[in-house]
């Protein structure tokens, strides 16, 4: 029997603005944690922020209505 292929979960389609707001929330949490001296979790939140910002940029390149089902 073959094992199923490893696949990462796909992020949901959303507006670029929503993805950007998620990125900002992660960045704010990272800044807060860093000010409290919790550097490991701050670094994790910083990476999450960067990922969501990149996703927001990618989403902004999709033309309006291109993902609508017909």
Beta-strand residue percentage: under 5%
N- to C-terminal distance: 38 Å
What is the number of helical segments per DSSP (H or I, 4+ residues)?
2
The residue-averaged pLDDT reads: 89
Cα gyration radius (Å): 16 Å
Outline type? flat
Give me the count of strands.
0
Structural class by SSE content: mainly alpha
Low-confidence stretches: none
Following the backbone from N to C, one meets helices and strands in this order, namely: HH
Largest sheet: none
Helical fraction equals 55-70%
Description:
This protein has 70 residues and is an all-alpha fold. The chain has a domain at 16-60. It is built from 2 helices and no strands. The protein has helices at residues 16-36, 39-60. The mean pLDDT is 89.
Keywords:
mainly alpha; 70 residues; flat
Topology, pairings included?
Blueprint: H1 16-36, H2 39-60
Helix pairs in contact: 1-2
In short:
This protein is an all-alpha fold and 70 residues long. The chain has helices at 16-36, 39-60.
């Amino acid at each position: 029997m073959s094992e199923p292929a490893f696949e990462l979960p796909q992020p949901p389609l959303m507006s670029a603005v929503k993805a950007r707001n998620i990125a900002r929330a992660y960045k704010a949490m990272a800044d807060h944690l860093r000010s409290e001296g919790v550097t490991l979790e701050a670094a994790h939140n910083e990476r999450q922020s960067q990922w969501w910002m990149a996703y927001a940029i990618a989403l902004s390149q999709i033309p309006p209505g291109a993902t609508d089902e017909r």
